[in-house]
């Protein structure tokens, strides 16, 4: 992978992660780096799913692929956000 591929993956990951985060109601307390990783993973998996169904390469904007990516990012952000909230709400007991 060349440097322009890495930079474009980061930019696309940020956009997809932010759109996935905006698609969810309420506030998600996850750091930006985690949103970036979720966005990159959602973009890669969404592109793979879209190519399996044959909708990855169309004329113009690939709306179905974009919708898949945003839905996957929203699911990932929701899952990570709930998991991180669950870790914070656990009571802390002193070790014996």
UniProtKB/TrEMBL annotation:
Topology within the bilayer: Multi-pass membrane protein
First-listed, main subcellular location of the protein, grouped into a coarse class: membrane
The family this protein is said to belong to: Belongs to the UPF0410 family.
InterPro entries, alphabetized: Transgly_assoc
Regions crossing the membrane: 6-24, 31-55, 61-80
Annotated protein name in UniProt: Transglycosylase associated protein
Keywords linked to the UniProt accession: Cell membrane, Membrane, Transmembrane, Transmembrane helix
Any single Gene Ontology cellular-component annotation: plasma membrane
Localisation: Cell membrane
